[in-house]
Design brief:
About 13% of the residues have low confidence. The chain has a domain of 101 residues: Up-down Bundle (Four Helix Bundle (Hemerythrin (Met), subunit A)). Helix 1 runs parallel beside helix 3. The chain has five helices and no strands. The chain is mainly α and 174 residues long.
């Protein structure tokens, strides 16, 4: 019965994250220009999201620790995402004003850049915490997946096109 309760908690967390992120994406009109299959996957398609780690055949103790780590970072991620959306709006406003104020554009860009940097650092910290609970074999599997993603991305580059002929369903599946 305890396993069923854990599964319910995991599903509730997943649904909360999906709802929060999809709401902000819909509000911003995200689907109007892309994102591709790696949108939101973090730097270099890292695999420390729920899908990547939970696909490693974790023990019950590891799964509990992974959920706790993700929950700890989830609130900060959502807050940072909201701040980043506001910063993007401020940058857009500065760029589209009737008269360009160079200082305002620079400051708005610096804010966006700083928030992106914070997000990458937080993701690296979370990845480090996740690696600490994994066995060497699980880390090897995760590294192999990241290498496969990197190879796949490299093979898709070229021909001077942003999507390099990629179709919407042309994403690797694990």
């Amino acid at each position: 019965m305890k396993s069923a309760q854990k599964s319910m908690v995991v599903m509730a967390v997943i649904l909360a994250v999906v709802f929060a992120l999809s709401s902000s994406a819909v509000a911003r009109g995200y689907g109007k220009g892309g994102g591709g299959c790696w949108a939101g996957q973090g730097p270099a398609g890292t695999q420390f999201g729920m899908r990547g780690v939970m696909g490693l055949d974790l023990s019950d103790a590891q799964r509990d620790q992974a959920i706790k780590i993700m929950e700890t970072h989830q609130i900060d991620r959502i807050k940072t995402q909201g701040d980043l959306l506001k910063a993007h709006d401020a940058l857009k406003k500065a760029l589209q004003s009737d008269t360009v104020d160079e200082k305002a554009v620079r400051n708005a860009y610096k804010k966006v850049s700083s928030l992106r940097e914070d997000r990458i650092v937080a993701r690296a910290k979370m990845a480090n915490e996740m690696k600490a609970i994994l066995t060497p074999e699980q880390i090897k599997v995760l590294d192999e997946r990241a290498a496969a993603v990197s190879d796949w991305k490299q093979s898709r580059r070229g021909s001077g096109k942003p999507s390099a002929g990629r179709l919407s369903g042309d994403c690797p599946r694990w």
